[in-house]
Amino acid sequence: MNPELYLADLEAKPASLEALAVAMEARDPFEELSPGIRRVVFLGMGSSRYAAGVAALRLRAAGVDAVAEYASAGLGYPPSEETLVVAISATGGSRETLDALSRYQDKSPTMVLTNTPGSPVTEGAGTVVPMLAGEERGGVSCRTFQHTLGLLLALEARLTGAGTGVPGLLRRAADATADLLDRRGTWLADALALLDGPHGVYTIAPAERLSSAEQSALMVREGPRRPADACETGDWAHVDVYLTKTLDYRAILFPGSRYDAQAMDWVRRRGSSVLAVGPAPEGARAVRYAGDDDPDVALLTETLVAELVAASWWAAG
Predict the structure, then answer these.
(1) Which pLDDT belongs to residue 41?
(2) Burial class (CB in 10 A: 0-12, 13-18, 19+), 15
(3) Same domain, 95 and 214
(4) CB–CB of 71/100 below 8 Å?
(5) pTM for the full predicted model
(6) 129: pLDDT confidence band, cut at 50, 70 and 90?
(7) pLDDT at residue number 261
């Protein structure tokens, strides 16, 4: 793992998203999807499961039975011919995902999303979908997380008949990502100062984009090795609000929940510090970017703020 190479991986995000959009326009990665699918089971760990959790929620909202499971779980949906099992592993070697996938092979249609063609997870898979994120030389899953989300949005469109607008969305996310990168000189130093406290960083996001909070907290833990944890915005008032009374509480808020105001009311009363990525509710500092009023653009883009914060802290040692 290397902080300089991690930063380079982040800076390559716009071009990488454009390449994924071009690849999707040339060929639907899910064109071989079996007909008659009634249920989708996602398997993954870490960033893969974060992305899958949002994908499963979106599919359920569209009327498709879907669940994202810890690949390490001993219990799960039984296999069937109508259950599509989607295993996600950027490296293709996650032991838990390999073990979970083996329970379904030859019993359910299986699909693998990976950034490593020919890796163990592809062996025996019915369909292999490359993430096309390129080598992450920094050793941290950042572009692969973003590409996983993009591909899962394309899978959603295929299963629900929602159309072929994902390449255009990827390009808007590439523009938004480039905007944050190009203007980091205007916001990154302030973000670093606001979030640099003795008790870590807390990340808060609506359920529909909970992956943004989870991935952001992971980036702070994985690179600079600082304490960080994620929470869903509505649930925050039930499980994390207590920390604002005893800690120097510093948070990244990903706005868009109907419960943003509830959380911010407590934050203001307790004098806590909050950085909003996107339109800021009262009491929060804001980092704005192109397209931040589109929830799907936000889903694909907003983790970059925490990733750049993590890269700076990591490089500083």
Answers:
(1) 98
(2) middle
(3) no
(4) yes
(5) 0.96
(6) very high
(7) 95
Would you say residue 73 has pLDDT above 80? Answer: yes
Are 147 and 115 within 8 A, CB to CB?
Answer: yes
273 with 295, same domain: the answer is: yes
Residue 163 pLDDT greater than 80, yes or no: no
- For residue 1, pLDDT beyond 90: no
User: Treating both helix axes as pointing N-terminal to C-terminal, what angle do 143-160 and 13-26 enclose, rounded to 10 degrees?
Assistant: 30
Question: Is residue 229 a contact partner of residue 217, using CB atoms and an 8 Å limit?
Answer: yes
Residue 153 shares a structural domain with residue 229: no
| One-letter identity of residue 34 | S
Domain boundary among the residues 141, 171, 201 is at 171
CATH code of the domain in which 221 resides: 3.40.50.10490
Residues 36 and 142 in one domain: yes
Give the dihedral of Cα atoms 189, 190, 191, 195; nearest 10 deg. Answer: 110
φ and ψ at 228, to 5 degrees?
Answer: -160, 145
Q: With a cut of 80, say whether residue 64 has pLDDT above it.
A: yes
> For residue 233, is it within any domain?
yes
**Contact predicate 148/142, CB 8 Å:** no
CA dist 131 and 124 (Å) reads 18
In sequence order, the β-bridge partners of residue 250 are 273
Q: How many domains, in total, are found in the chain?
A: 2
Cα–Cα distance for residue pair 214/194, rounded to 1 Å: 20
Q: Which domain holds residue 132?
A: 3-171
Specify whether 154 is located in the same domain as 205: no
Q: Are strands 110-114 and 83-88 parallel, antiparallel or unpaired?
A: parallel
- Residue 266 CA to its chain's centroid (Å): 27
